[in-house]
Structures are given as structure tokens and as C-alpha cells.
Amino acid sequence: MAKIVIIDYGIGNVRSMLNAFYHLGYQPLLTRDKESILNAAAVILPGVGAFKHGMDNLKEFDLEDTIRTYANSGKPFLGVCLGMQMLFEESEEFGISKGLGLIEGRVAKLPIITNSELKLPHIGWSDIQNTTNHNWSDTILCNLSPNTSCYFVHSFTASPFHTENVLATSHYGGVDFCCAARRDNIYGLQFHPEKSGKAGLQMLRNFISLI
Q1: Residue 102: which of 117, 83, 118 has the closest Cα?
Q2: Which of 81, 150, 178, 179 is catalytic?
């Protein structure tokens, strides 16, 4: 069976991600061991919390270059929630912090309109939409229909500089935002597939199928 690695960098609740893969019949390895990451068939970077804290932990465990090397190897790589945000070049959360720079763009607070009755953080179910830039076939969103509902928990969102890197969008507080990004083999999901029911499990199946 292909080795799937979930990166353990001391942040976020990874139990639900592990359980999702167990449900699919896989036994992922939760680790921060560099060789295990580099030799994996597919890697997931999970995370919840603040961007700077996440990047500080990656630095503490000396994982930045390992992640960049793996992500640029052509093998499937997935960042989820904070893990997606850290794929980008920088974030404005608690001051400017540098990210992994795997996708061109930056992270900023979700700019909900002033008179919106909705507040931050964005917590709950929202639909995801296809864009004119992408056909979802042969991607992590294959076999999903537009208006699929997914579970979000976030106040900040990543904005790719290039529209071709926007795989899907969602809507909250009167604004549209990128909720799924892609650059070649590198994927990012702002929502939590592991908490998004059958649709989320389908996304993880699709991810595995990319191996």
C-alpha cells in the first residue's frame, strides 16, 4: 500500500484527518521525520491556528526545505486550512510573515462587507464553486458537483496572484474567495475535507488516486 504521510509539526488537531484515512482503508503515518516525508507517495500538511505560529513550528523542526523539496518532486501534496495558507508567499496575520512560497500569492483577512450580518471567523458549511479557469476532472475535486457544501473554520484566506491557480471559490459575508488552489501537483483546501462528510471523503479518495 502506498505510504501516505501527514506532517506532524505540533499544531492543530490531526485526529479527524487520521480517522478520515482510516475510514478509507489507509494507515497514514503521522511524522516529522524528514526521510519519511521525502519517501512518501503522498503528503498532507494539515493545520489550524495562526500563520506565524505554524511557520515558526516548521522552522523549529527544520521542515521548510523538506516540504519544498517534496512538493517540487511532482508527487501529490495537499495543504488543508492553515496548511493551505502556508503554501503561499506571505500572510498579514499578526504582521507580515513569510510562507513556503510554493504558490504565488498572499494571505489576508477575509474582507467581509461592513454591513454583512455575518462575522468572523467563518465557521460552518458553505458551497464551493467551479471557476472558468479549471475543469475539475483529474483533480482532487473530480466527480464533485458545483455547489458542493464543505466545512470551514477560518478568518484569513489565501489569494493566488494567478487565476489559473484558483481551483474553486466560495462565498461568505458578501465576498467571493479562493477556497481551493492548485499548482501542478500541489493542492490547497481552505475548508476541512476530513469534516465535510461524503464530499470530503471523495476529495481524499481523489487525492489518493493521484499517486
Answers
A1: 83
A2: 81
Q: Answer for the pair 167, 141: CB distance below 8 angstroms, yes or no.
A: yes
In the residue annotation, 81 being an active-site residue is answered as yes
User: Do the beta carbons of residue 165 and residue 182 sit within 8 Å?
Assistant: yes
Catalytic residue among 93, 150, 179, 192: 192
Tell me the per-residue pLDDT of 99-122, one tens digit each, with 9 for 90 and over: 999 999 999 999 988 777 889 999
Instruction: Kindly state the cell numbers that stand for 117.
Output: 450580518
- Say whether pTM exceeds 0.85: yes
> Cα–Cα distance between 29 and 154 in angstroms, integer?
26
User: H/E element holding 159?
Assistant: strand 156-160
Among the options 122, 154, 178, 194, which is catalytic? Answer: 194
**Per DSSP, what are the bridge partners of residue 195?**
none
**Does 192 qualify as catalytic in the annotation?**
yes
- What the chain holds in terms of domains, given with CATH numbers, is 4-209 (3.40.50.880)
Question: What sign for the dihedral angle of Cα 159, 163, 165, 166?
Answer: positive
Give 124-133 pLDDT, tens digit per residue.
999 999 986 6
